[in-house]
Amino acid sequence: MVSVLLVAVVLTSLGYSFPEAVFIGTLFLPGALAAKYFFPKVSFKSRGTAIKDIIFIVLGILVAEILFFLMAHAYISRIWENPARLFDEGAAIPEILTNPIFIAIILTLLSGGSYLFERWLDKRFPHSPGPITFTSERKPVTLPVEEILYVESNDSITTVVASGNRRFKNKTPISRWEAILGSQFIRIHRAYLVNRSAVSGIDVDILYVGETQLPISRKYKDITL
């Protein structure tokens, strides 16, 4: 809400009243939420595919946002009641609201600020998430988070390894699992996400979960338990 109000203050300089500016400012939220939802789902196993997915997501969000602004401006300007006003110079939508760079900057600030705020809340007020429900081989599975030992990614298949030697295959990308499971789980490799409380030992480039050895890649060499 603070972000919306700040955007509204900027929009009042374009000739909108403050209530109108708040209304238009709220239209940035769907794009920010879409970015927050879709980007973690992008898999970087294939760099080319990942780049294409990111481009399509960005273009889709920008086009949708511009359409939202056009409809909102038309409503505020009462163009629906008098279509002839569309050609009035004073009724034209401000160019900044159709500028994809401006929209992308605002959406980045909103989604990035939300991410950083959530990270701060997780550290300031740590909590244990409730049971996780997902689909494994077309069957619903519900697991308490503390029973999940680690998550392993292998091409398009991700395996959730739980206590009791239980293994559940699914197609949720490991990056999405990382967002779902939170700070209690640490990334030690592009293919492994491990529950901190399940770690039984650590070596130079190996982490132990019970008797299972998991590799630690150079990128995650400085992990802290």
Please provide a written account of the structure:
- The chain starts with a helix and ends in a 10-residue tail after the last strand.
- The chain contains 6 helices and 10 strands; from the N terminus they run αααααβββββαβββββ.
- The longest helix is centred in the first third of the chain and has 30 residues.
- It is elongated.
- Helices cover 42% and strands 21% of the residues.
- A 5-stranded antiparallel β-sheet has the order 5-4-3-7-6, with helices on one face. The chain has a 3-stranded antiparallel β-sheet with strand order 8-9-10, with no helix packed on it.
- With 225 residues, the chain is α+β, with helices and mostly antiparallel strands.
- The mean pLDDT is 85.
- It has 2 domains: 123 residues, no CATH class; 89 residues, LytTr DNA-binding domain (OB fold (Dihydrolipoamide Acetyltransferase, E2P)).
- Strand 1 and strand 2 form a beta hairpin.
Q: Which strand-content bin applies to the residues? A: 15-25%
* Shape estimate: elongated
How many helical stretches? 6
State the end-to-end CA separation: 35 Å
Low-confidence stretches: none
What series of H and E elements makes up the topology? HHHHHEEEEEHEEEEE
- How much helix is in the residues? 40-55%
Biggest sheet statistics:
5 strands, antiparallel
Number of strands: 10
- What is the subunit organization of this protein? single chain
Radius of gyration: 23 Å
